[in-house]
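During the no-cost extension, the postdoctoral fellow (Dr. R.K.) reprocessed legacy sequence entries with the updated structure-token encoder. One reprocessed record is reproduced below for audit purposes.
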Amino acid sequence: MNIVSVEKAEIFPLNPPSDGAYSFKKGFPIVQFQIANQDKFLNASTVRLNGRLRLQKPGGGSPTNSVGGTAAGNGIALNSRVGVPSVIQQITLATQSNQTLEVVRSYGRYLASVVPTTHSQSDMDSVLTQGNPCSASRSFVGAHSVNNEVSFSIPLRTGLLNSGRPLPLGNNGLRGMLVNLELAPDSHVISGYSTFDDTGVETKQLFNPISTGAFYEILDLSMTYDLLIPDEKGRQQMTTPATGQFVYNSISQLYGVLNSSDQTQNYNLGTTNTISLFHSFIPTTFINNYAEDGFSTGRLSNSNGGAYNAEAPIKRVTYIRGGSKFPLDYSLDVEEEALENRPQTQLETKFMDAIKPMASANHSLVSLQTQNAIPDKIGFSQEAEPERSATLADPKPVFGAGINFDPLTRTGVDFKRTNYGIRVESDLDGASPNSIYTYVVAKNTLTYSPNGIMVQT
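Re-encoded structure tokens follow.
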């Protein structure tokens, strides 16, 4: 089958509000798109969600994020490492017969780990801002961008849409597709911003009073993508129902809570070809809280008088399959590095490898500055040369735990009938719950026939 041309397509939501503005606060948190059944292929990597983002002060009006800005509007911002996609809580991809293809929950927190792990400071301050103007390596810079309404054009980073293969939309294929977006609560999306002095001391700026609740709106939404048009013979084949299949990666999410100093979390993944997974952590009270960044990816913390301002360093991590250590036959012992404020290299490299294989890793925000607030560099004299911290990324960790189960063949490991577990030994005091978000990357097989569509996990 030969591709003879490329067609540019744009579609609009099936459920437009009367004023064109989708908003969690105003009761329009669902956006629905339908990609029609047609004898063409969808170039999935070109799918973009387009529109305008508007942040609003509690009483209406744009934020005033600036030094000396008014209290009611200064400190209304998005997480700068995620940006505009933080407004999306869940993405559901399905066929027009409502056969679910993929569901990515807590999408913003997924990106909070993936984007800074796979994009450098230069990427976040230049390339990414072209479609996601709220992207920045420093939260103060990202906060400035939302002082006015901004236009965006963002990809949907799901496993299926990033599979790297064209998706058949005809009767001999998916027979069209539905894309449902669920918006996140305002209190989860919006938080303040931070500035840091040369010693790394953080100053937070929050709008006042936070109890009144700022909110966001997204307007004039559309979805654009490229369609690949086959030759006449190929179009006839796509029109006639037939049997076929293809394999794609899917992303799923699980939630848990860590509270004790030695705790094992067990999960029933239910996936046959499990490629990798990773975990990120956040104090439980930070979720859906205007006063805190719900997309932070810091280390475990203990509560001190209600404030999570005391780190609870991870000492040891063990990955488990069916009660046995797997795929590593040893535990990752990182206590000494944590106590000495050194990179927990064993833990952090495995985490990054679970997101993108280290052999192909070439861009990342992760550095001594983000992980350990060490801005110095080593010059030719082998002595530390201080850099201006104002030119560096915010010293906020991109932290997590993770494992690549099959780095060689990328076939995956069977967890269909076997539990996965992670044992975390730390300094948690038993009175400071920390949420653990788990993201699983696995291969699914989609089979289509005249009788319908089936997805095997």
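Residues 107-118 form the longest helix (12 residues). The chain has eight helices and 26 strands. The remaining legacy entries will be reprocessed before the final report is submitted.
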